[in-house]
Amino acid sequence: MMFASDDDSQYPTQPSETDEAEETKSTGRWFAVQVASGCEKRVKATLEQRIQTLDMGDRIFQVEIPQAAAFKIRKDGSRQQTDEKIFPGYVLVQMDMDDESWQVVKNTPHVINFVGAEQKRRYGRGRGHVKPMPLSYSEVQRIFRQRDEAEPVAKTYLTPGEKIEVVSGPFKDFDGEVIEVSPERSKLKALLSIFGRDTPVELEFNQVRKLS
């Protein structure tokens, strides 16, 4: 399968003059590739194997899943280090785009398509093809800066409506019900019965445990 094209400029292999002024000396351009949900790691591993098997290392250079540091709060309140995908459902590929390298990526199992501009069919009806568009230098910088500089995000198994016990802090040994969860702040709000009245209290994830 080949790209349909009206001219010889189908493949965005050369950066614009503006991009050339900004680009580093790294080889290739970065493209975003949409993949099946939950298959990011599988696509990365398979594509890297295909690159080696098909001897495409001179045209497809890197496959990345942008991730930021995160941690899960276990039921006992302890932390487990993990990673959080910044763009679930996408991988980034640094490559020189031509028909052969396009096919290697596009035909990888669980790959849906490149992110780009949809080109209309010249004849007949139906959807055309997607012309892959490289990410700009500023987009690439922003994505990897977000990966490198993001504060660790807390993930919790708790959801609103669940019963919890406070295990540390000034409200230790109080029971309550979760009413709001804020993962970006590593905190939640719970209704605690204080002096016989339900009172909303903000707590850290590691200050509570779920009641069975």
How many DSSP H or I helices? 4
Number of strands: 14
Could you report the average pLDDT, rounded to the nearest whole number?
Answer: 77
- Uncertain parts: 1-25
Radius of gyration over all CA atoms, rounded: 24 Å
Gap between N and C termini, in Å? Answer: 56 Å
Q: What level of helicity do the residues show?
A: 10-25%
What keywords describe this structure?
4 helices, alpha+beta, 19% helix, 4-stranded antiparallel β-sheet, 212 residues
Overview of this protein structure:
- It is a single chain.
- This protein is of the alpha+beta class and 212 residues long.
- The protein has 4 helices and 14 strands.
- The protein has helices spanning 17-22, 40-53, 99-106, 137-149, and strands at residues 29-35, 60-64, 67-73, 79-85, 90-95, 111-114, 116-119, 129-132, 153-156, 163-166, 175-182, 187-194, 197-204, 208-210.
- The strands form 4 sheets. A 5-stranded antiparallel β-sheet has the order 13-12-11-10-14, with no helix packed on it. A 4-stranded antiparallel β-sheet has the order 2-5-1-6, covered by helices on one side. Strands 4-3-9 form a 3-stranded mixed β-sheet.
- A hairpin with an 8-residue loop joins strand 10 (163-166) and strand 11.
- The chain starts with 16 loop residues before the first helix and ends with a strand.
- Mean pLDDT is 77; it is low at 1-25.
Give a brief outline of the structure.
With 212 residues, the protein is α+β, with helices and mostly antiparallel strands. 19% of the residues lie in helices and 37% in strands.
